[in-house]
Structure formats: C-alpha cells, structure tokens
Specification:
Layout lengths: L11 H10 L11 H17 L9 H14 L13 H10 L6 H28 L3 H16 L4 H6 L4 H16 L3 H12 L6 H14 L3 H26 L4 H6 L13 H9 L5 H21 L3 H22 L10 H29 L6 H29 L1 H24 L3 H5 L3 E4 L4 H8 L6 E2 L6 E6 L19 E5 L3 E5 L8 H6 L1
Parallel strand pairs: 1-2, 1-3
Antiparallel strand pairs: 3-5, 4-5
Helix pairs in contact: 2-5, 3-4, 3-20, 4-5, 5-6, 5-8, 5-16, 6-16, 6-17, 8-9, 8-16, 9-10, 9-11, 10-11, 13-15, 14-15, 14-16, 15-16, 16-17, 18-20
C-alpha cells in the first residue's frame, strides 16, 4: 500500500486523518532515484580528487579512525576521546583493514557528504522555487554558495568532520519526502540520527506520522527496527569501550573554554553566534520568501513546504540553543543544518524576486509575441544584478580562502611531519615502547593512531620515562608539550618544522635517527 492510499479496513476517522496528513505532491511526478545516485557518485569522485590537496583529519575524526581499528581488534576503548557517533565509526571500522590509507578513506566519505550537501542545497532551492529557469538557477546558486562560504564549512568538511554528511542525508530525506517516498525519507533520517542525537525528536515524530498514514507492514518493521537500532548503536559500543552507557553525553557536557555554554545566558548566546553565520542578503531573501509563501498559503493553500523548511531550520537552531543552555557545548558547526535550510529558503527568495521582476516587465510591456523572450531576458538580467548585489557580503568570505588554504596546509603538514619523524626513529610502535606517551592536547588521537595506542594511553605530560611528540597545533601556537618542562633524561631525536620527537630511549638501531646520532 502506498502512503496515500487508505486501506478498506481502516476506521473512517483514521482514513480522514490520513487524508489530512498526506501532503499534496510538490511536482507532477517523483524524481527518478537514479538522479540522487548520480549525484552521490559525483560527490564521491570529487571528494577522492581532493586528496590531491595536502590532507588530514582533525581531532574527532582521528578518534573515530582509532576506534574503527580497535573494533576490528576487539579492543575498543572510548575514554579519552570525543563523543561517540555510530555512523562515522561504522565507516572507519570498514576502513580499518586497509591500514595506512584508512584515514584518507574516511576523508573521502566525510568530504563526499559535504559535496552532496552543496549539490542538494542547489537541488532543493531549485525545486521549491518553481517558475522560470533563470529563477530556479539563481535560487540554486545562491543556496549552494551560501552553504559553501558559510563560516567554517570548508574548514570543517576538509578536515573530515561529519556535519556535511548530516546536512546531505537530511536534505536528501526532504527531497524523498517531497517525492512521496516516505519510507526512503525515514531511512535517510535514520542515518542522520546516527550522526547527531538532536535528530531523534524529528525522526520520532516523522515515524509516528508515517505509521498513521501508511499501515503497510513494511513501514511498521522499518520504524520499529530503526527505533531499536538507534539506542543500540549509540549506547552499547560506549558501554563496551568505557563501561558507561552515557559517556558520550557526559563528554558533550565538557565544553571547550570558549563555548557559549559559559555565557550568562547560553541560549541567547547561541542565537547571537548564529546570526552572523548567514549572509545578510540571504537572510533578507529568506524573510521575503517566507512572506510570499505565507501569502500563497493564505490565498491558494500553496507553498506550505517553504514555510515548513524554514520552521525546521528555526526549530533546529533553538534545539541546539536549548541543549547549550542545559550544559552541552553548542559548537558553531552543530548549527550548520539550520543555517543550510535558511540558505535554501534564501535561495528561493532570490528566485521568486527574479520571477516577480520578469512578470512586472512583461506586464509593463503589455506582453505581445515576444513576451516569453522578454521574460527570459529580464530573468537573466535580474540573476546577474542579484549576484552582483551579494558580492559586498560574499566577497570577503571568498577572499578569506587564502588564509584558510595556509591553515589547512599546515594541519596536513602536522600529519606528514609526524609520519616521517616516526619512520626515522624506527616506527610508531617502537617509539611508544619506551614508556609513557605524551603530546599536545589537540594531537592526542592522531598520535594514538600512528603509535598504535588507545587514546587514553597518550597523555599531556611527560613521564619520568617515555616518549614525547611535541608539536605546534597552529603556526602561531606554542610547542606542546614545551621541551624545557621535560624531566631529566629526555633527548631530542628528531626535529621537523611542526613536530619534534623526544624520548628517554634511543632510536631503533639501524634507523635514520640512530645512524645520525652514531
């Protein structure tokens, strides 16, 4: 049974409720699923090509990569790392048997999610705008551009964070919902729920709605199975790795010093931090699209989807703010799903402005045989004008990519220098055999990966005997741990631009460092 077909055995009240809850189709027919498959394949290809650029994961992804290797060896330890995310570790567990290339395989997945998010932002804005081709094009370009240049999007996605996947799966779920493929939409929402727990309330409500409108046995099995798997995949591995079902929640309530959780009113601080993440023209266009959609709904019962997507964005941002008020970290990257949805609606606003301009010009010109060409020409001119008008706000963000490039190359150099340095002293496992391992705060999981230790076995302070990876987390940061604080007996074995190796033990006989010292 399809989601829009009532069963003859249904009570009258349920059939009536189903009719009210089932949305009218947004377009004449559902999108061919192969389109999304093609976009996903293109996203993976683009992500793989980015490995030609110097690349490295950041703190959280390195921990997921370490945990994937530990699961393969049935030796999971999650203490001393970030919060657990089931879907990310499913991927890194699959990649663990590939050894040294496992980190790069994860980067392909994380970056593919970011590319897919940009593609689907374009696609959803195009779809919701309707109207002329120029209007749809400007809507899609604005939505994709607003996401692409949003604060920290490129940095976070290049370094392998999971928010790109979260946005991609959520936008994909909205697309499939609009196509009338409700079970597929729910399954995609389930994948999002394995990345952030804030998705759970939305998915739960959607699951209840789906059960009300579709009494097919397959729907019941899907909703119940996913409902069981979510707590199982979030809690049981944490209990295995730490002995605490709630370690992920406990870890999330240990925010960094600059977190809005420490503000006098954390909820309002998150809202204030969110406001500048979106370009001013995009926010204004989103407000315009909302007004137009409200009028269309009032007059013709149309455009409810635009209002609903904007409402989802506001609810998401408010949920993050409420959780920050409750003591969670409120990291700006958690907001990105909400700002992406607003970017989509902003794109719709730009598109509607193009169509309105075209209609006004045609009306003033009194139509005629050239009305279609006049409308298209006006639309193209309006596209160019609107894009040019955003440059004042978008230009500085594009120009900031030079500094971002230098920062990302430096982060990649940290990984390169560590790998080379360990190779020169006889390898990571040999280096770690000397005793206690220590490194800087932000390098713990990366060092743990290269020396084959658990993250909780890599500390921040050198022991009486042991080895140290001293590095500078950014080009302007101090060395950590600082060499002048080491106990007596440590010798500098290797000195690289970003990384120094110290140990109370000599380098492995026959290694480059041992021969240089000899």
């Amino acid at each position: 049974m399809t989601a829009s077909t009532a069963s003859p055995s249904q009570p009258a009240w349920l059939a009536a409720l189903q009719a009210r809850l089932t949305p009218a189709p947004v377009s004449g027919r559902a999108t061919d699923g192969r389109l999304y498959g093609g976009l996903a394949l293109l996203a993976v290809v683009c992500a793989a090509l980015t490995l030609l650029y110097p690349s490295t994961p950041t703190y959280d992804p390195w921990a997921w990569i370490v945990w994937g290797r530990e699961i393969v060896h049935f030796d999971l330890t999650t203490t001393g790392g970030p919060s657990w995310k089931p879907l990310t570790v499913i991927f890194t567990t699959l990649f663990a048997p590939f050894g040294d290339i496992a980190p790069d395989l994860w980067l392909v997945v994380g970056r593919a999610g970011a590319f897919m998010a940009v593609f689907l932002a374009f696609r959803l804005a195009w779809r919701l705008t309707g109207g002329s081709i120029p209007a749809r094009v400007i809507a899609g370009v604005i939505a994709a551009m607003a996401l692409f240049i949003s604060s920290q999007f490129i940095r976070n996605m290049t370094l392998g964070n999971s928010e790109g996947l979260l946005v991609a799966f959520t936008l994909w779920a909205i697309e499939r919902h609009l196509d009338g493929k409700y079970r597929q939409a729910f399954a995609l929402g389930f994948l999002s729920a394995l990345l952030r727990p804030e998705i759970w309330p939305f998915l739960g409500l959607y699951g209840l709605w789906l059960l009300l409108i579709d009494r097919d046995r397959r729907t019941l099995v899907l909703v119940v199975t996913c409902g069981v798997l979510i707590p199982v995949l979030w809690l049981l591995p944490e209990y295995w790795g730490s002995g605490n079902f709630w370690r992920a929640a406990d870890r999330a309530q240990q925010p960094s010093p600059n977190s809005p959780a420490f503000a006098d009113f954390p909820f309002w601080q998150v809202i204030k931090n969110t406001w500048p993440l979106m370009l001013t023209p995009v926010k204004a266009a989103a407000a315009f699209a909302l007004v137009v959609a409200g009028w269309q709904w009032f007059k013709h019962r149309r455009d409810l989807v635009v209002i609903a997507v904007f409402g989802l964005a506001v609810l998401w941002i408010c949920e993050i703010a409420l959780m920050t008020q409750a003591g969670f970290s409120g990291n700006p990257r958690y907001i990105i799903l909400g700002t992406t949805l607003i970017a989509v609606i902003g794109g719709v606003g730009f598109g509607r402005a193009v169509d309105i301009a075209s209609a006004l010009v045609v009306r003033v010109a009194r139509g005629g045989k050239n009305a279609n060409w006049l409308a298209i020409g006006t639309g193209v001119v309006a596209c160019v004008v609107l894009l040019a008008a955003t440059y004042h706000w978008a230009g500085p963000r594009f120009r900031s990519f030079g500094n971002l490039d230098r920062a990302l190359r430096y982060q990649a150099q940290l990984r390169i220098d560590l790998d080379k340095s360990l190779g020169k002293v006889g390898g990571g496992e040999y280096f770690a055999q000397c005793g206690q391992m220590a490194t800087g705060t932000y390098q713990v999981p990366m060092v743990a990966w290269y020396v084959h230790r658990h993250t909780n076995e890599v500390g921040l302070e050198p022991g009486e005997h042991g080895s140290v990876v001293a590095s500078r987390s950014t080009g302007a940061a101090p060395w950590a741990p600082a060499g002048d604080t080491f106990p007596w007996g440590y010798t500098k074995l290797i000195e690289q631009r970003t990384t120094h190796l110290y140990s109370t033990c000599p380098a492995k006989p026959g290694s480059v460092a041992a021969e240089a010292a000899g």
